[in-house]
Amino acid sequence: MHFAWGILFASLNHFIPRTTFIPIMASLTSFTLFMELMRYRDGYQWINTSFYYLFGKSLRKSEMDGKFTGSLYYFAGVTATSYLYPKSCATLGIIQLAIADPTASYFGRATRHVYWSRINKGFAGGLGRNKGILGFLGGAIACVPLNYRILTLACRAAKVTMSITNPTIFIASLVLGLAGAFADLIVPTPALTLPKTICGKSVPPFHLDDNFIVPVLSGYACTQIFKYILGVPTMIIPLSKYLIV
C-alpha cells in the first residue's frame, strides 16, 4: 500500500501541472489535518470509528490512541516536495518515499537480531534511535533498480547519454537511494513528539515522521545529484518529461 500510494502520487506529480497538483494536495492535507484534529473531540468519535472501520488493519495502535496517522504526513510530504523542487526532483523524491521507507522497515525487522547493526540509543537528540544499519542499506539498495531505469530512460530520451555514462547513472541512482534511506534512518522510534502543552497551552500531537522527512530530503538530494554527479543542472526540466516511462 505504501509503495502503491507513492508511485501514484509520483505519477500525478509528474503528469499534472504544478499549478493544479499543489493546490489539490494542499487541500487534501488540510482536510486530513482537520479530520485528525476533530476525531478525538467530544461528539466526533464517529470519525475515529470510521477510521478504524476503513483502515483498521493498516493503523498502528498509537494512531488510534492519540497520534496523528501517517497519511497526514504522507500528504504533507508530497505537497512540500512538489512545491520546493523542480518536477523531476520532486517526482524522484516521492519515489524514494514509496520504496525506501517500507523496504528499510522490512529489512530492519528481518535483521533485528543482528545486534551490531542496531542503533539503540541513536545519535545526537535521539536521531536514528532503534533503527538498524542493515535496514538502512536494504532500503537504499532497493531504490537503485527503479532509479537506474528511470534515469537511463530519461538520459536516452533527452539524448545526453554520450555525456552521462551508465556507471555515472548507477552512482547517481545509489546515492539517491542512500539519501532516501538515510532520511528514514534518522527518524527515531518512537518518534519525537511535541509536548502536550507549551506555555500552558495544549498543542496538537505533531511528531517527526518519515513520511514527511523522506521525500523532502530526497528531493533536495536529487537537486544536488543532478548538479554534481550527473552534471546537468540546465537539463532538469527537459529530463522531467521522460521520468515516468
What would you say this structure looks like, in words?
This protein is mainly α. 64% of the residues lie in helices and 3% in strands. The strands form two sheets. Strands 1-2 form a two-stranded antiparallel ribbon. Strands 3-4 form a two-stranded antiparallel ribbon. It contains ten helices and four strands; from the N terminus they run H-H-H-H-H-H-E-E-H-H-E-E-H-H. The longest helix has 25 residues, at 133-157. The chain has one domain.
| Proportion of helical residues | 55-70%
State mean pLDDT (0 to 100 scale). Answer: 86
- Counting DSSP E segments of at least 2 residues, the number of strands comes to 4
Number of domains: 1
β-sheet strand percentage: under 5%
Any descriptors?
single chain; 245 residues; mainly alpha; two-stranded antiparallel sheet; two-stranded antiparallel ribbon; 10 helices; 4 strands; 64% helix; globular
Which helices and strands occur, and which strands form pairs?
Blueprint: H1 2-15, H2 18-38, H3 45-55, H4 61-64, H5 70-84, H6 87-110, E1 118-119, E2 131-132, H7 133-157, H8 166-185, E3 197-198, E4 201-202, H9 210-228, H10 236-240
Antiparallel strand pairs: 1-2, 3-4
Helix pairs in contact: 1-6, 2-5, 5-6, 5-9, 6-7, 6-8, 6-9, 7-8, 8-9
